Amino acid sequence: ESVDKYLKGEKIKRKQPFLSKSEKTAQDFTEKPKEPRISAKHRPAAERREDFMEICETLSPEQARKEASRCLECGCMEYYSCKLVKYANDYGIKPEKYNGEYRKSEKDDAHPYIHRDPEKCILCGLCVRFCDETVGASVFGFTGRGFDVEVKPAFDMPLSETECISCGQCAALCPVGALTETRMPGKQIPLREKSTRTVCSYCSIGCEINIMTHGNIITRCLPSGCSTSLLCKKGRFGLLDEAKKERFTVPLIRQDGKIQESGLRLAAEYTNEKFRRLREKYGKDSIAVTISGQYTNEEAEMAVRYAKDVLKTKNIFISEPDSGDAAPAGLEAQYINKIASLKGVEINQILPGANTQGLINLGAKPREDYIKLADSRKLKGLFVFGADTSINRPENLEFLAVQTMDTLAAQEADAAIPGSSFAETNGTFTSRDGKIRKVQRAVQSPVSGMDNSDIIQVLINAKS
């Protein structure tokens, strides 16, 4: 339409979008420490005369990151998704009509996952109703009368000190920027996001989620928006917690007692050769493989094939115990039970890891059987697919190989192969009710350069 008007010589009128603005003063940043800028080192003239190098040296990567973090981002985290701004633009709202007093309230950033900015609250009450009627925590409530009405946590406490179970649904429901979730690690800035629907990997209920990304950065996880769309703390913020950890990306092998970097094929051949020697010395039953319930059916099938065809062992176990992590209690247990019931699963049937049922279908034995083998002191070689910092090296074990994203777990092993997360792969999970659920890659370029299936294929093809 605009091109048509331009070609006809007609005047094009562009409607300026509504944008909420506020003036910031030094008082708004009193909690920010004042630090001097990092200046690039200026090379002396006598030194510069001898070459054609830059006059100033560049900042180191650490210095550059520190300088970038100084920027005081004032943009609202809901800039690209605020419903109030959308409706204001749709209906041509003239904000000057409503000029007048407004409440001054302090922000609450003490909660590890949720940030409160009461000045942006429009008193819709969605957070109050959901937390009371669905979660049962009743964290939020209305206080005051008339112009002074506010939504506050119980007894005006910081949100982190209430009975909040960190489900994050209040932030998901908030139509403006009054309640927002912590997004990517580090500095919080508004970004235009892409949404990818996939399945949560943390338990066997099979909840659908939308992973929000900006390029290859995972910014947050949101409920999928379907009628049974509720997420617990793990589903909502588990990926964020993982992103805070230092990511392991380069294969490592231990030689002469020292860990050193290696190429993927060399590390695979080294690993297979070590297992071959153990098998010849102690027999097939001296080797075992454990597989995480967060691996897709396709990845797990390849890991099982690697164990049987390359390592020649049938000792294949599920990494996670039947009961999972410490069982939730109180309000969190009630909320998870509600999520499970919406999916037709009883809470006592929930398994840790989205694909634990898939591993059972592939013939993997429960972790309890692995513990018996480890306690027998007959186990000499172990390959852990999906290792984390909780890995416990069995006594008398001579060789430990891991595929992991966790740097600490990699440092404990004799051979470590990089892994990818469920957000970096395509495949399927089998939920507890037996349904096959599609996993879609949200990050197109895995941090390690390859996804788990490609890496396991290298292990299968490597010489021993």
What is the average of the pLDDT values? Answer: 88
Instruction: Quickly give the structural class.
Output: alpha/beta
The poorly predicted ranges are: none
Q: What portion of the residues fall into strands of 2 or more residues?
A: 15-25%
Rg from Cα: 27 Å
Rounded to the nearest angstrom, the distance between the terminal CA atoms is 67 Å
Quantity of strands, as a count: 16
Largest sheet: 7 strands, mixed
Q: Taking strands numbered 1, 2, ... along the chain, how are they ordered across the largest sheet?
A: 9-8-14-13-12-10-11
The helix/strand series, from N terminus to C terminus, equals HHHHEHEEHEEEEHEEHEHEHHHEEHEEEH
Tell me, briefly, the overall form. Answer: globular
Tally the helices. 14
Share in helix = 25-40%
Which descriptors would you attach to this protein?
three-stranded antiparallel β-sheet; about 30% helix; 16 strands; alpha/beta; globular; about 475 residues
Quick rundown:
With 464 residues, the chain is an alpha/beta fold.
Task: Provide a descriptive summary of the structure in words.
By secondary structure, the protein is an alpha/beta fold. The protein has 14 helices and 16 strands. It has helices at residues 2-7, 45-48, 61-68, 83-90, 126-135, 169-173, 233-244, 264-282, 297-310, 330-342, 356-361, 367-375, 407-412, 452-461, and strands at 114-116, 140-143, 150-153, 179-181, 194-199, 208-214, 217-223, 252-255, 258-261, 287-291, 316-318, 381-387, 399-404, 415-418, 427-430, 436-439. The strands form five sheets. The chain has a seven-stranded mixed β-sheet with strand order 9-8-14-13-12-10-11, with helices on both faces. A three-stranded antiparallel β-sheet has the order 5-6-7. Strands 1-4 form a two-stranded antiparallel sheet. The longest helix is centred in the middle third of the chain and has 19 residues, at 264-282. The protein is globular and about 85 Å long.
